[in-house]
Amino acid sequence: MPQTLDQGQGGQRPDPSVDETDLLSRLRAGDDVAFEELVRTYSPRLLAVARRIMGTDEDARDVIQDAFLNAFRSVKNFHGDARLSTWLHRIVVNSALMKLRTRKRKPEESIEPLLPSFLADGHYAEKFSSWGEQADEAVSRTETQELVRGRIDELPESFRTVLVLRDIEGLDTEEAARVLETTPNAVKIRLHRARAALRTLLAPHLGRGEL
Amino acid sequence: MKCRECDEFLVDYVAGELPLDVLATFELHLSRCRNCRAYLDQYRATIEAGKTACDAYKAGLRMPEELIQAILAAKPKAPS
ipTM value of the model? Predict the structure, then answer.
């Protein structure tokens, strides 16, 4: 049974002293040591990206393996027109999306029950109140962060993917649309619904009186 | 503008991408509707909570050694 990915104290970080130009030239020369350096330097953050998109540790492990092998195969075609870390990030995102597309899909659960409803006159059916500073305070705690990530994992796949790419990984609408093979407008609609659904899932935990 | 329309414009508003004419109407509605202001606050807090939680995960995640070894073992050997 696969182990859960370890949240250590600090984890491995990309080494700021890594000379990307030197590393790239050694990679292109087929240097095994350079490939190991690449994996050890960049994999922790990339594994986290894969984990958020895929929703499970096991799928994230498969994605990260595929992504590094793809990187190894295509490094000769990479001319350094982006940072190495950016290039690897794109490979991981594409590998993850490819895996989601090719695996047997279960019908997705409807997100509608998690969206706000409206009265006939166009007003929200529910009364809201600001979460205020208590929400910020709660989110600074490790256990709340874990809860938030768990709720993101609960979102239906097509909504979770957009939310992760836009709000977590910082892709812009155009780029998210390109990698998801959809239109910018479809990205905006899905992103809005994903945020609204996540808000509903977080409200019992971040709202006043629930802390 | 009603709350329902206001809701539909939230994604562009938060991104700072609402056209100026719509922005004026949107902000006029916000100034008059406490419920929409509160919803916008929760919407923004949701985005921030997701980012904070996932950034913390990224910063703390350890790459399992056996996964590193599996990747290295699967790499084709470079021609000598």
Answer: 0.89
